[in-house]
Write a structure and sequence with these properties.
five-stranded mixed beta sheet; globular; 12 helices; 2 domains; D-Maltodextrin-Binding Protein, domain 2; six-stranded mixed beta sheet
C-alpha cells in the first residue's frame, strides 16, 4: 500500500513537471476618440477583430470609442509614447502641435483629392515612420478622412462670393484661408455650430460630409462645395515597448493586418464621402460645381500659407513637399 502511494505521488510530481504552461493571453485597451459609428472607429474595431482571429485570441484588442479612456486628441502622441495607451488611433493634424513634420497634412490646397492625398501619404510614410520611432511608437496604418468642403447658406461660385462669409473653422490654417478670402473665421466647438447657424452668428462651415450628416446641415444650410481645403489623415499607432513584448509571429500579424486595413480604408472612405454627400442632397442641399477658376484662385491666395510653413519646416518636411510637387507637376 505504501509502495502504491509512493508511485502515485511520484507520477503526480512527474506530470506536474512535464506540464507545459499555457501561453499568456495579452489584452490591450485600444483608444479611439471618435464615436462608435465613425468610419475610423468602425475600421479600428474591424482591425481588432482581424487581429484576434489571426492570433487565435492570443492578442485581444478591446476598442474603447468616444474618448471613454479619458484622453483628448492632442494628447495622443504623448500618451502612446509614455505607454499610457498601448495602441491608439489619432488625427495626424491633431497631434501636429507636438511634431512639426505632421503639419504638412494641414497645408491648404496641397493635396487636392484622394489620389493626391494617397501620393502624399506614400511619400511621407518613411519620414513619418522615422518620427514615430522617435516618439517610441510604430505606425500600423494610415487612413484618410473625407475632405473639408464649404457648407453655406448662400450660393458660392467664385472667390468673390466667399467675401464676407462668417465661417466656422477647426484649425489655424482653415482660419487663415477664410481670412485670405475676405471672410471672418469662428473657432467654435462643434456642439455650438448648429445653434450658431440658426441665430446667424455664422453662415457657413468648413467640414467633411459625415459631419454635415451628423449635424443635419440641411436644416440650416443650403449649399455644399467640395473644394477640399484639406483632406485629413488618421493613423493607428502602437507603443514600441508593448509591441516588442509580443512574440515575433504576433508582431508580424499586427503589421500585416495593418497593411490590409490601410488598403480597406483607402477604398472605403471615398465611397462613404460620396454617400454622405448624396444623403445631404436627398434632404434638400445642393452640391455646387467646383470650377477650375475658383480652385486656381484659392490655391494662389493661400500660397503664402504654404510658403510660411516651408520656411521653418524640418528638412524632411521640405523633402516631402518638393517630391510631392514634382510628382503632381506643380
Amino acid at each position: 500500500m505504501r509502495r502504491f502511494g509512493f508511485i502515485l505521488v511520484t507520477m503526480t510530481v512527474l506530470l506536474s513537471l512535464c506540464a507545459v504552461p499555457a501561453i499568456a493571453k495579452t489584452t490591450w485597451n485600444v483608444n479611439s476618440v471618435w464615436p462608435p459609428k465613425n468610419p475610423h472607429s468602425v475600421g479600428l474595431i474591424e482591425f481588432a477583430d482581424k487581429v484576434k482571429a489571426a492570433t487565435k485570441g492570443d492578442l485581444e484588442l478591446i476598442v474603447q470609442t468616444g474618448g471613454s479612456l479619458g484622453y483628448k486628441g492632442p494628447e495622443l502622441l504623448k500618451a502612446v509614447r509614455d505607454g499610457l495607451l498601448p495602441l491608439s488611433d489619432m488625427l495626424i493634424s491633431g497631434v501636429a502641435g507636438d511634431e512639426k513634420l505632421f503639419q504638412i497634412v494641414t497645408l491648404p490646397f496641397l493635396a487636392k483629392d484622394f489620389q493626391e492625398l494617397r501620393l502624399l501619404t506614400d511619400i511621407s510614410r518613411p519620414y513619418f515612420d522615422k518620427v514615430a520611432k522617435k516618439w517610441n511608437q510604430k505606425i500600423l496604418y494610415i487612413a484618410p478622412w473625407p475632405g473639408a468642403g464649404l457648407w453655406t447658406k448662400k450660393k458660392v461660385m467664385t472667390l468673390a462670393d466667399m467675401k464676407g462669409l462668417k465661417t466656422r473653422t477647426y484649425d489655424k490654417n482653415g482660419a487663415l484661408v477664410v481670412e485670405a478670402t475676405g471672410g471672418t473665421p469662428y473657432a467654435l466647438p462643434f456642439s455650438e455650430v448648429y445653434t450658431s447657424l440658426q441665430t446667424g452668428l455664422i453662415d457657413s462651415v468648413i467640414t467633411s460630409s459625415p459631419t454635415a450628416v451628423d449635424a443635419k446641415f440641411w436644416e440650416v444650410l443650403n449649399y455644399f462645395e467640395r473644394i477640399n481645403i484639406t483632406i485629413a489623415t488618421d493613423m493607428v499607432n502602437v507603443n514600441l515597448n508593448s509591441f516588442n513584448k509580443l512574440s515575433k509571429s504576433i508582431q508580424s500579424t499586427l503589421v500585416s493586418i495593418g497593411k490590409e486595413m490601410e488598403n480597406v480604408m483607402w477604398e472605403r472612405v471615398p465611397v462613404l464621402d460620396k454617400e454622405m454627400e448624396a444623403l445631404c442632397n436627398k434632404n434638400g442641399m445642393e452640391s455646387l460645381p467646383v470650377s477650375k477658376e475658383i480652385m486656381a484662385d484659392l490655391s494662389k491666395i493661400t500660397e503664402s500659407i504654404r510658403a510660411d510653413w516651408l520656411k521653418d519646416a524640418p528638412a524632411d518636411g521640405k523633402k516631402i513637399y518638393q517630391d510631392f510637387m514634382k510628382k503632381v507637376g506643380r
